[in-house]
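Q: I'm building a small set of examples for a reading group on sequence design. Run inverse folding on the following structure and report the sequence directly after it, with nothing in between.
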């Protein structure tokens, strides 16, 4: 059986390292990683596991990136960052991949369904929409991968939805709005399955480790931790939209409102995942919220 050569970009990051590990469990896959200068020490563990390290970075020229993409079948991007990485860097990589004859390109999305959001709803989603459009028009094979919000992020302080210290969930709109959430590890396993699945070429793949409403979430937290959880409605979804616009108009700091834009994507339901495809990959057993809470109940 011939092997598939997969290049991971962002392989030393939280998600990228898990994707690399999942690929290494596939006997017919040869794994390589694009490693920028200065990250060699961090990448040494990957090399010890059998990953081929290729020197390069997204701010390299298209010609240099083309060399890094030689003899690669699939590129899985797991980079994070601002416009110079998500847009400029990935589009240079896309051009290089096409010139090198790469068969499939998976951009770094790993999110709610940003394709259903409107331009202006979310700064980061706007960038991803532009990248996705360029990927689709490039002529190279692609897979768009969506997994909802990362479970670890959902319970963290960035989104400002679950207050673990004060045992409170705050939301806009309805407490019955559904949220899709997946752990980093499960997302990594699923994207590897999708990347190697010929049926997912030029497709959008959506997976969800768990799907809950805020009401259900509060109940599950109470069941696992024993803490009473308060549900607090802060206003309508339109109220949140106005707050975002007001904040954007008074600051040039994207981090002052980007968390609220993620809230809007979740609370409004506009980015809810459709056509969940977990069943296509029965060998992946995703972690439910209750299972995750059992292992992390000490955060409350």
């Amino acid at each position: 059986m011939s092997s598939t050569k997969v290049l991971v970009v962002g392989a030393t990051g939280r998600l990228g390292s898990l994707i690399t590990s999942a690929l290494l469990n596939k006997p017919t896959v040869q794994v390589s990683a694009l490693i920028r200068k200065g990250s060699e020490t961090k990448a040494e563990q990957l090399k010890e596991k059998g990953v081929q390290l290729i020197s390069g970075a997204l701010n390299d020229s298209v010609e240099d990136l083309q060399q890094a993409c030689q003899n690669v079948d699939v590129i899985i991007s797991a980079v994070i960052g601002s416009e110079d990485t998500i847009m400029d860097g990935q589009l240079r990589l896309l051009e290089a991949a096409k010139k090198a004859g790469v068969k499939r390109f998976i951009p770094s999305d790993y999110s709610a369904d940003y394709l259903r959001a409107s331009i202006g709803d979310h700064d980061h989603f706007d960038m991803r929409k532009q990248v996705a459009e360029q990927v689709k028009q490039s002529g190279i094979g692609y897979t768009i991968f969506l997994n909802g919000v990362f479970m670890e992020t959902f319970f963290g302080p960035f989104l400002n939805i679950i207050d673990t210290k004060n045992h409170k969930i705050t939301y806009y709109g309805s407490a019955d709005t559904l949220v899709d959430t997946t752990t980093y590890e499960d997302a990594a396993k699923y994207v590897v399955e999708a990347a190697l699945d010929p049926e997912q070429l030029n497709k959008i793949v959506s997976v969800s480790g768990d799907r809950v409403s805020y009401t259900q979430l509060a109940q599950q937290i109470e069941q696992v931790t024993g803490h009473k959880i308060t549900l607090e409605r802060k206003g309508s979804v339109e109220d949140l939209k106005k707050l975002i616009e007001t904040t954007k108009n008074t600051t040039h700091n994207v981090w002052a409102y980007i968390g609220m834009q993620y809230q809007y994507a979740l609370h409004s339901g506009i980015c809810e995942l459709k056509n969940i495809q977990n069943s296509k990959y029965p060998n992946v057993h995703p972690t439910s919220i209750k299972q995750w809470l059992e292992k992390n109940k000490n955060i409350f």
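The domain at 4-147+182-207+273-278 is CATH 3.40.50.720 (Rossmann fold).
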